[in-house]
Amino acid sequence: MHNKAKTLSVGLESVGHTVVNGTFFDTVTVNLKGITPEDYVACCVEKGINIFVDYSHGTVSISVDEASTEGHVLSLLEAAGLQLPVIGVLSKLAEQKRAMPLQMLRKSVFLGHSIFQKYKSESELMRYIHRLHRKDYGLTHGCVPLGSCTVKLSPAAATLSLSWPEFTNIHPLASKEQTRGHSALCLDLEQKIRDITALDAVSLQPNSGAQGEYCWSLCDPLVS
């Protein structure tokens, strides 16, 4: 992931763009040269890639993760004006680039606890994890009627549709043009719930108790 970000950085700099953040792990912020952020975004969208634009500073930020491929990096570089980029050459150049200061690299021992050296085989590790599991108290044993997450728990049958490929993999910051279907479904569901319950308003939230608490913190001044 970090190597792909470095490859992207080297490729962008090779065609005259300026990488603003010299220290980075997975996100490169760029001041573009010879192309506007709007035009670059449009080129990336045509290639199926969304990037972030900071209009106040005129920069774009590009993040890579485990799902990012060399093909994605090539597409981003081609959109930036790099002709026929050779990923192998750029990767070699990226190996020489240091994007993280030495003082930020770990020097201390990690995984030093004896528990990490105790269980060597798969079966031993499995039994150890199961012993930890048996100490927990969950819905397989009963119900703890506390906590907003428990209150909001939905049955698996009700959330099965959330795993359908038609609904999944949408980015939280995707543009409105790319989420019209999701918006239409949400608005339709909200209206149906209002019709059934006679409520004045309905809020759709993820399965997180924190969302409910955040919602209440917003509503509380109105109630009081």
From TrEMBL:
Residues 2-78 form the Glycine cleavage system P-protein N-terminal domain. One of its GO terms (molecular function) is pyridoxal phosphate binding. Signal peptide: none annotated. Keywords: Oxidoreductase. GO terms for biological process: glycine decarboxylation via glycine cleavage system. GO terms for cellular component: glycine cleavage complex; mitochondrion. Coiled coil: none annotated. InterPro entries: GDC-P_N (IPR049315), GDC_P (IPR020581), PyrdxlP-dep_Trfase (IPR015424), PyrdxlP-dep_Trfase_major (IPR015421). The keyword Oxidoreductase applies. PANTHER family: GLYCINE DEHYDROGENASE (DECARBOXYLATING), MITOCHONDRIAL, GLYCINE DEHYDROGENASE, DECARBOXYLATING. This is Putative glycine dehydrogenase [decarboxylating].
